[in-house]
User: Which sequence fits this backbone?
């Protein structure tokens, strides 16, 4: 005679409570690893930021011949926007390497899902969806500026493959008008030769801050486009004519081309 097993299934015994399925518990973040909310840039400790900045500055001194113009135009405190043209991937780490303050900036969404995504986050970046109006990234920029941060944006949205200024997206104008913070125009040229030539000359030129305001009480699409174009014309006017692209004719009436210094600037 076989002995009946005392174990019964939950379907055979309806009074037995069913056990809840096991829930996956998120692993705690490693020390120094940014949180999962990609739209909240990681606040890198200043000691790490200075170390990273110093190493980047040293690397660029070895592979590039960098000249910096107009550093006195960069505010020493308070929130502001750095709007720069974009010729090479080098521009992204190059610009912060020559600033004393920590920065936050937008980077294309795809980068955050790559192997270096954690590093991009650690350096203060948050994602933007290219080719569409990404309201989340615009709100993130607003929040960072309200917190007194320095925000870097490349208004063209991508690198220029022909090494000339392309038409900028209106996100710059919208962020500048909504926040009310000054915009420091930045012109970079020569970076397109990085890693292609031995220590090519690269110039970073900072222009005088621009404060943008809407024409009326309510911000319009025309205000946003005008604000964006105003900054881009200023950037173009700071560059050699061959780099001005679609803003070439407009830039000629803004201001004369800024001459570069003869000697590379040292880290301060």
Assistant:
């Amino acid at each position: 005679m076989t002995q009946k097993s005392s174990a019964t299934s939950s379907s055979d015994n309806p009074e037995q409570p069913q056990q809840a399925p096991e829930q996956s518990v998120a692993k705690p973040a490693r020390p120094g690893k940014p949180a999962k909310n990609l739209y909240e840039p990681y606040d890198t400790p200043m000691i790490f930021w200075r170390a990273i900045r110093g190493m980047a500055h040293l690397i660029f001194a070895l592979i590039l011949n960098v000249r910096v113009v107009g550093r006195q135009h960069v505010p020493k405190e308070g929130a502001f926007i750095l709007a720069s043209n974009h010729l090479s991937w080098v521009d992204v780490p190059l610009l912060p390497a020559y600033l004393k303050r920590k920065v936050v900036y937008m980077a294309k969404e795809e980068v955050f899902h790559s192997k270096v995504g954690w590093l991009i986050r650690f350096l203060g970046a948050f994602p933007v969806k290219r080719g569409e109006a990404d309201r989340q990234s615009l709100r993130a920029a607003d929040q960072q500026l309200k917190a007194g941060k320095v925000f870097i944006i490349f208004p063209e949205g991508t690198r220029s493959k022909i090494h000339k200024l392309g038409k900028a997206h209106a996100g710059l104008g919208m962020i500048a008008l909504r926040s009310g913070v000054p915009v420091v125009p930045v012109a970079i040229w020569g970076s397109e030769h990085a890693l292609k030539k031995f220590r090519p000359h690269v110039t970073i030129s900072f222009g005088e801050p621009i404060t943008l305001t809407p024409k009326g009480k309510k911000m319009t699409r025309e205000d946003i486009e005008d604000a964006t174009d105003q900054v881009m014309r200023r950037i173009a006017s700071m560059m050699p004519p061959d780099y001005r692209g679609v803003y070439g004719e407009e830039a000629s009436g803004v201001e004369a081309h800024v001459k570069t210094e003869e000697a590379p600037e040292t880290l301060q």
